[in-house]
Amino acid sequence: MISKRITQIEGTFMGTKFFVKPVPINLDDIDETQRQMLLGWYQENHPTVKEKLESGADIDSFSDEELLGISAWKKDVEFRSKYIKYLAESCMQFEKAIPEDNWKRDDLPYSVVKEAWDFFTERRVV
Predict the structure, then answer these.
(1) What is the value of pTM for the model shown?
(2) What is d(CA 42, CA 61) in angstroms, rounded to the nearest whole number?
(3) Nearest-angstrom CA–CA distance, 74 and 61
(4) 100-112 pLDDT, tens per residue?
(5) Distance CA 31, CA 121 (A)
């Protein structure tokens, strides 16, 4: 069944038009899945970062290496392509399918996906 938001949030991602999907009742599960994807990556690649993030450690307790580790997932092409694709397909309804190779591109406009995700999860409102 197709549903649309009353207030439409639209954009273009890599030349493909999209609109932000309505918020489903299981949003917490979708949000937790993306969180677990990141935490799993941290566990494998930067375990101390994962521990500190889960414990709610103050940012001042992170070493310089750990601070760099927070965004290091963006350099892991295989992980980031799966992660960003999950976010995008969860929150964006595309006019046409995004080619698989596009998810691995270094110039992928992550900020568009992140902004759509923020509207989808109601962290940002119109």
Answers:
(1) 0.91
(2) 17
(3) 22
(4) 999 999 999 999 9
(5) 8
Q: What is the CA radius of gyration of the chain?
A: 16
Tens digit of each residue's pLDDT (9 = 90 or more) over 22-60: 999 999 999 999 999 999 999 999 999 999 999 999 999
Q: How far apart are CA 33 and CA 98, in angstroms?
A: 21
Task: Report the distance separating Cα 103 and Cα 66, nearest Å.
Answer: 26
Backbone phi, then psi, for 39, in 5-degree steps?
-60, -35
Contacts for 45 with CB less than 8 Å, ≥ 6 apart: 69, 72, 73, 76
CA dist., res. 24 & res. 21, Å (int):
8
- What amino acid is encoded at 93 in this protein? Q
Write the burial class of residue 103 (CB in 10 Å: 0-12 exposed, 13-18 middle, 19+ buried): buried
